[in-house]
Write a structure and sequence with these properties.
mainly alpha; about 550 residues; membrane; globular; single chain
């Protein structure tokens, strides 16, 4: 996509990367909206179905988060010559720039695929889990669920590898028409098969939304701000069937949302007469739990910023020797596959080799806490940026030595296989951080907030994309001047991409210090089995 925008739409590297940042932000944020729609209004089946339709209108390939990246609309921009700027002629005239209508069509295609991702990503995992729970108290259901999760994520990784190898190869060798058209056809077949299997699906009923519950707590707490705290636990409103839990003292102001002002505020069946005037203790504690994990959640944003720097390694690979043999070279867009391969291998080694070996040596079960893995992920991500900067520093020096300062298309006599190192480090950082973060959210948040736990990672990626755009724009603006090239110049040999990498490494180092402070303030954490949590959520749906 970077090459498509730079070559066909003549965007510079900063504009290209910022557009992809905004696209990524929308694609990672809309699944949260999709979760609200699925849980409160349409249900998961219809949400996935509508998302599949939008995705067919806009689907080309997947990334590490398995979100659609292209579309029939995007395919049309490659098929219809007038949908993009005409090729530059050789008569010396200036190349025509992208018109407003052409640019809007491109952005419209991005918007459609983001909406499609919002429908599919928000519900596909939970909807799949629903299919395994027949309500028959199957003693093997936890094992079945664990197997389902394993295959789900394995196939997500497989789809990314296919995208970064097969699809990229088609785009590189056969052009954009074929490269965008083949995935669009595959998405059509996927959506068709999903609808054809409709009679066989278990379709849970729509349930109440936890997001609305949070808003109710805040509104009611503000309404009751003049109330005094009661001395008796019976003056607090509790959920039917729950124990009479006393609200915690942390964030005490929110406790006013569950204070019973008048007996008539509670119906004879124990339910609040108006949920916008009285909340339960359980609602209040759920919001407190979310607020408590937010500082640690914010520490993962920096890793996502580092992971989102996809365009710069692409230009690096394009300028280096990518040959494996004399007759075959790796497409520049395929180097991201090494990150996924490293992630997969590391997860296998960690779970099947390192932990069993450590447990055997210690004589007891050994497992790193999720919060520890999150910290390791931040450290490895920092090292990845440092190594990326070193490789780029060496590559640029070689390019200048070869006289390629003004020729960004020239081939530097340096193997692109060096880029495998930072890609592998990124994969290990992703394995530690993303998996650790997901386990942390599931273990620290109440069972009723499992949908929130699954949405937090995507929300962090959305925020990271926006912040990455701010950082990139600032670096471009403040590092260039009269006679001075920007760090992130479109001419990779004139720019200083290594300075930009090292700046990100410095920010990541500060983020690691911030993470340690957040851990100290948070205190002890707990661990639970995510599979059991997901099964409990599935039971709640039924």
């Amino acid at each position: 996509m970077t090459f498509y925008l730079m070559r066909e739409y003549r965007m510079d590297i900063t504009t290209t990367q910022n557009l992809l940042f905004f696209w990524s932000a929308a694609t990672n944020f809309l699944p949260i909206v999709g979760a609200v729609v699925a849980d409160s209004y349409l249900g998961r089946f219809l949400t996935i179905g509508l998302g599949s339709i939008f995705s067919f209108m806009v689907t080309v390939k997947s990334t590490t988060e398995a979100w659609p990246m292209g579309t029939v609309v995007l395919w049309l921009t490659a098929m219809i010559p007038r949908a993009r700027p005409p090729p530059c002629n050789q008569s010396g005239q200036a190349c025509k720039s992208t018109t407003t209508s052409q640019y809007m069509l491109l952005v419209f295609s991005f918007l459609l695929m983001s909406i499609g991702a919002g429908g599919i990503r928000s519900s596909s995992l939970a909807f799949g889990a629903n299919q395994l729970d027949k309500g028959d108290n199957n003693p093997n259901k936890y094992k079945m669920m664990e197997s389902f999760f394993t295959w789900y994520y394995t196939l997500c990784v497989a789809s990314v590898l296919i995208a970064l190898t097969g699809i990229v190869y088609l785009q590189d060798r056969l052009g954009w028409k074929v490269g965008f058209g083949v995935p669009a056809i595959l998405m059509f077949l996927s959506a068709l098969s999903f609808y054809l299997a409709s009679p066989f699906y278990i379709k849970p009923k729509v349930r109440s939304n936890v997001f609305a519950s949070f808003i109710q707590v805040i509104v009611v707490a503000c309404k009751n701000r003049e109330l005094h705290y009661p001395n008796q636990n019976s003056d607090y409103h509790h959920k039917n069937g729950s124990g009479h839990q006393v609200p915690t003292e942390k964030l005490r102001f929110l406790n006013k949302a569950c204070i019973i002002k008048r007996p008539e505020d509670v119906k004879p069946n124990g339910v609040a007469a108006n949920p916008w005037n009285l909340c339960t203790v359980e609602q209040v504690e759920e919001l407190k739990a979310l607020i408590r994990v937010l500082p640690l959640w914010s520490t993962g944003i920096m890793i996502s910023i580092n992971m989102s720097q996809s365009s710069f390694p692409l230009l690096q690979a394009q300028s280096m020797d990518r040959h494996l043999t004399k007759g075959f070279e790796i497409p520049a867009g395929s180097f991201g596959m090494f990150m996924m391969i490293a992630l997969t291998i590391w997860v296998f080694l960690y779970d099947r080799v390192m932990l069993p070996l450590a447990s055997k040596i210690k004589g007891r079960p050994v497992r790193l806490k999720p919060i520890v893995r999150m910290g390791i992920g931040i450290f490895v991500s920092c090292m990845s940026m440092v190594v990326s900067g070193i490789i780029e520093h060496v590559r640029r020096r070689k390019a200048i030595y070869q006289g390629l300062l003004n020729n960004s298309q020239g081939l530097v006599e340096m193997s692109a296989l060096w880029l495998i190192i930072p890609n592998c480090l990124n994969g290990i950082a992703e394995a530690f951080s993303s998996i650790g973060s997901t386990e942390f959210y599931y273990s620290e948040l109440p069972r009723s907030m499992s949908s929130i736990a699954s949405a937090l990672l995507g929300l962090g990626m959305a925020v990271a994309s926006l912040l990455a755009s701010v950082i990139l724009s600032a670096a471009d603006k403040y590092t260039k001047g009269e006679g001075k090239e920007s760090w992130v110049s479109s001419n990779i040999n004139k720019g200083h991409y290594e300075y930009y990498y090292w700046f990100l490494a410095l920010l990541t180092a500060f983020n690691l210090i911030y993470f340690v402070a957040c851990c100290w303030h948070y205190g002890t954490s707990v661990e639970v089995d995510i599979t059991i949590k997901m099964m409990e959520l599935s039971d709640d749906d039924d």
